[in-house]
Amino acid sequence: MKDIYSIIKRPLFTEKGAVLKEKDNKVVVEVDLRANKTEIKRAVEELFKVKVQRVHTITMKPKLKRWGRSVGYSPKRKKAIITLKKGEKLDFIEGM
């Protein structure tokens, strides 16, 4: 991975993510499947100008989905839970 814009795909807005953000100063984002923790940390620090303390990654297995008689799978995804250093703040949507 070379390009920081291809590593971070999108932020994930869930109830669990909101609790982590308020309680522990953590942010949840979806990342590229091939990205490792070091690349994710570098991309977040360069892109958002914040200091990252720790990165945890989770690979989500594809789930079986049905559309009538058709059967398929949801795509495989990778999430990163990024812990920001004390005093750092990252808001994807201002005013929330």
Mean pLDDT: 91
Number of strands: 6
The helix tally amounts to 3
Rg measurement, Å: 15 Å
In short:
By secondary structure, the chain is α+β, with helices and mostly antiparallel strands. The protein has helices at residues 4-7, 15-24, 37-48, and strands at 8-11, 26-31, 52-60, 64-67, 70-73, 77-84.
Structure in words:
The chain contains three helices and six strands, in the order H-E-H-E-H-E-E-E-E. Helices cover 27% and strands 36% of the residues. The protein is globular. The chain has helices spanning 4-7, 15-24, 37-48, and strands at 8-11, 26-31, 52-60, 64-67, 70-73, 77-84. Strands 1-2-6-3 form a four-stranded antiparallel beta sheet. A two-stranded antiparallel sheet has the order 4-5. The longest helix is centred in the middle third of the chain and has 12 residues, at 37-48. The protein is an alpha+beta fold and 96 residues long. Strand 4 and strand 5 form a beta hairpin.
